[in-house]
Amino acid sequence: MSLTALLVDGLTVRFGSFRAIDDLSLAIDYGEVRAVIGPNGAGKTTLLDVISGITRPKQGRVLFDGAHDITRWSESAIARAGLRRKFQKPSVFEGLTVRQHIAIGADVGFRSRLDAPALEDRISEVLETVGLTEQGERLAGELGHGHKQWLEIGMVLASDPRVLMLDEPVAGLTDEETERTARLVRALVRPDRAIVVVEHDMDFVERIADRVTVLHEGRTLFEGSMDKVRADKAVVEVYLGR
Ligand SMILES: Nc1ncnc2c1ncn2[C@@H]1O[C@H](COP(=O)(O)OP(=O)(O)OP(=O)(O)O)[C@@H](O)[C@H]1O
């Protein structure tokens, strides 16, 4: 296993003549939580779209696990390899229970197929981790927004991801739910997993991120700890000071 989970190398994504990602290079290691922040339109979602196979770059590579350029892989091949994403808007199956959702996540994603008892154990373990044990038999449609977010994190987690991408996981959550999500994200850290979080809530980012990459106009404006990010003049000018 490489120490680097994702190596983004000279990546450019164009929409017509506009460069949403502009010759971007960055490395994300196993064992870390990396926050990707920056103003609207900086290219954060586009970066996640490339890593998850939704958008094809014009130039550059994304090496997964030090060896595989995933920019030509299909979305499903990328997901099967263990790169999994929770999208910004919760989209649960209203008529299925919480347990059924986690089962789908485990069944679709788990790289070594589980037998029935192992699957039940896995579901219970995931429910415990995301704090939804008591809601296991409830229909997803009855859950509040926070619980839906944790359910979706649970679905992704059930697949035992190597790279876990979370797109604005605390948008629309209360302060208490945000705090609980921060604790959850930190509990998902493992030496063989990289967690990439796109988020606008800077207090949340400070709580979870080992390192922060600030994007601006498709390039890295700054990279470092949140303390250093907050102190950087250029970052304050284009983003934090607004
Ligand atoms: N399919 C597309 N066609 C044309 N332009 C696009 C497309 N997708 C994204 N863009 C443009 O690329 C730029 C980067 O968008 P992106 O969604 O990656 O930004 P972001 O940093 O995620 O912003 P936000 O914080 O608002 O989510 C924006 O100017 C956006 O309008």
UniProtKB/TrEMBL annotation:
<protein>
    <submittedName>
        <fullName>Urea transport system ATP-binding protein</fullName>
    </submittedName>
</protein>
<keyword id="KW-0813">Transport</keyword>
<dbReference type="Pfam" id="PF00005">
    <property type="entry name" value="ABC_tran"/>
</dbReference>
<keyword id="KW-0547">Nucleotide-binding</keyword>
<feature type="domain" description="ABC transporter">
    <location>
        <begin position="6"/>
        <end position="242"/>
    </location>
</feature>
<dbReference type="InterPro" id="IPR027417">
    <property type="entry name" value="P-loop_NTPase"/>
</dbReference>
<dbReference type="GO" id="GO:0005886">
    <property type="term" value="C:plasma membrane"/>
</dbReference>
<dbReference type="InterPro" id="IPR017781">
    <property type="entry name" value="ABC_transptr_urea_ATP-bd_UrtD"/>
</dbReference>
<dbReference type="InterPro" id="IPR003593">
    <property type="entry name" value="AAA+_ATPase"/>
</dbReference>
<dbReference type="InterPro" id="IPR051120">
    <property type="entry name" value="ABC_AA/LPS_Transport"/>
</dbReference>
<dbReference type="GO" id="GO:0016887">
    <property type="term" value="F:ATP hydrolysis activity"/>
</dbReference>
<keyword id="KW-0067">ATP-binding</keyword>
<dbReference type="GO" id="GO:0005524">
    <property type="term" value="F:ATP binding"/>
</dbReference>
<dbReference type="InterPro" id="IPR003439">
    <property type="entry name" value="ABC_transporter-like_ATP-bd"/>
</dbReference>
